[in-house]
Amino acid sequence: MTSPRHSISVHYARTFLAGLERRGYDCDPILQRAGLHRRLLHNAQVRITPYQLSTLVQEAWRLSDDEFVCLGSRPSRFGIFPLMARQALHGSTLRSVYRRSCHFYNLVSEAVQFRFEEDGDVARLSLTLARPELDPDHTLCEFLLLIWHRFPSWMIGRRIPLRRISFSFSRPGHAAEYRLMFPAPVEYDQACDGFEFSRELLNAPIVQTPSNLRTYMNRAPLDWFSRQAYYPIFTRRVLDQLEQSDSLATATMEEIATAMHTTTRTLRRKLTDEGTSFQDIKDGLRRDTAIHLLSQPSEPVAAIARTLGFSEPSAFTRAFKHWTGVAPSAYRKTAASE
């Protein structure tokens, strides 16, 4: 099975729109283009596809002419990031990417101040919002850190392993999303918002070209929301095996353990140490597959149930409602309405 399965908490759709609505913008057309319904926004269990969130953010950029989506003290005009990216491409190493990008935004934006430091064997990127009260759910802060990790990683053609993420705020209710966003331990109530990684990586060469950059920016922000999902090592290996399986529905722990050249007992212990289980991983994958397939209006619910290994649509409905808080038919209906 190879269909996209990664899903994202509806929290981000709700909070991206919150800044626009505080400024008086009508967001219903944005929701319609993203295939979402307003009633879904306030159900914390609902999850959406990367494509839906990407469409929502793209439409928000166009409506507000602000890449900070009205969550900063001043707008960052739509198109500033691609301009910065072209400037960063003129450098030669990861070090130049961070120096150029931080210098660029510190010149053109009063809403956020970036700081890039090298200290011993550590490289550190941090940011300060001029008016953090305009970003009460920390969405802009998280979004900027996500971009400043993923865009430089793309520039050098490999993921930058982070040592830690620090946030100035306390652990939020949506903190479970961070394992999909940031590949590092997260620390709260810190002096600043930022991340650290090995200074050695700063000499990594830029491998992208202007042609690649155009394609990358045309897809933005989709790749930022869908390309990298970070899990502990055995959780990731189980996910990889399940994604390669010809039948996710019937895949067993014994089969996956054999494919990984380990025993079922060892695999169960390793997953327990990582705070999960085989069934949790499989159910999460089935959930995300279901969300993806339900976003395709031509796929009948009964067919989706069969694909995911449910003997009856009613069993699938119960499971989906347990996973997301709404029935699959209701999820599809509300997403497609208006």
TrEMBL record:
Keywords: DNA-binding, Transcription, Transcription regulation. SUPFAM superfamilies: Homeodomain-like. Residues 236-334 form the HTH araC/xylS-type domain. The keyword Ligase does not apply. InterPro entries: AraC-type_N, Homeodomain-like_sf, HTH_AraC, Tscrpt_reg_AraC-type_HTH. The keyword DNA-binding applies. It comes from the Bacteria. This is AraC family transcriptional regulator. It comes from Marinobacterium aestuariivivens.
